[in-house]
Amino acid sequence: MIEARIAPSVGDLPAPQWDALTGGNPFMSHAFLTALEDSGSVGPGTGWSSSPITIADDGGQIVAALPAYLKGHSQGEYVFDHAWADAWHRAGGAYYPKLQIAAPFTPATGPRLLLADKALALPMLRAAEQVCADNGLSSAHATFIAPEQLPLFERAGWLLRSDIQFHWHNRGYSCFDDFLAQLSSRKRKDLRKERAAAQEGLEIRVLTGAEIGEDEWDAFWVFYQDTGARKWGQPYLTREAFSLLGERMGERIALILAYRGGQPIAGALNFIGPDALYGRYWGAVEDKPFLHFELCYYQAIDLAITLGLSRVEAGAQGGHKMARGYEPVQTWSAHYIVHPGFREAVTDFLERERAGIAQDQNYLAARMPFKKGASSA
Fold first, then answer.
1. 110 with 215, same domain?
2. Residue 376 domain-assigned?
3. Within a domain: residue 316?
4. CB contact at 8 A, 131 and 6
5. Range of the domain at 156
6. Most exposed residue of 23, 67, 186, 241, measured as fewest CB within 10 angstroms of its CB?
7. 3-state secondary structure of 279
8. 219: closest CA among 269, 279, 168?
9. Does the pTM of the predicted model rise above 0.85?
10. Strand partners, 169
11. Burial class of residue 95 (count of CB atoms within 10 Å of its CB; 0-12, 13-18, 19+)
12. Which CATH number does the domain housing residue 272 bear?
């Protein structure tokens, strides 16, 4: 018999055992998830209650885990199920609380089943289903699943949902100009002009590890608050979260800051994975043309090439990324709906939505800025 347990938090679990299962993904790391817990970014009053589910072997070693949260709303997920919640409420059901398997506030792909052995995938998902049944939860949702894990969810009978993000792919480039050479002449000229305009009068620094101190985090906190207030009304992370992230995983962070006269006026925060650079947050206190593109997209490409990373994931949404060489790719989530009738309705919805997503991806892929004959996804 396999026994699964719910821990009060990721912080209650041994870091080496947890990290041994993550494949090096920065957002699944013990350091990242506990920084959110310890800073109050998740926990009481946030609608995110940490509830990691684990399976241990006979010696007490964790061999499987789910980064799970009890959710009282659908904010900070970037896979929108508000229509499902409204429909279920109109039918007399209670959609919340639900179980969310995710890296909070992070639309970046990665493993959601943390496994020492793939044979534990089904018991792990059955445990999540049992948590729903035992606690009267409407559903469980795993978002931004690494593509190689999709079959594990599908075999368990979870419903799959797709969406589109824009990622940049490194095809063995040695420098930014190598990448530009793959673009059409007009787009190549446009990008060079944008970079020149964005950099004029500024100094741009890429900081990591001990180079990022409290002064840098103070500056970035101002940028983050401004962008967060405009985009989603209230920033998700507390100020303390950034200090803890820098302290616990600074070597996996690249903070790109733009300075005018020695003062930072804008910044972009990136996380470094084993094979990808993940762009997360950006903000500015000065409105300068093309600076957003420079810090978030072009500097990220430069850094990914320097580090030999295979791709840049630049976050959710943003069709404007295509003109900067970021290509449309499908992202995936998996959903377990408890009530059979509600599950059937969601299944019908997903079938219609999936057809539309496929059409959108084909439409977008045909409008990439690469010159004819250049490789693109």
1. no
2. no
3. no
4. yes
5. 4-164+329-365
6. 186
7. strand
8. 269
9. yes
10. 311
11. buried
12. 3.40.630.30
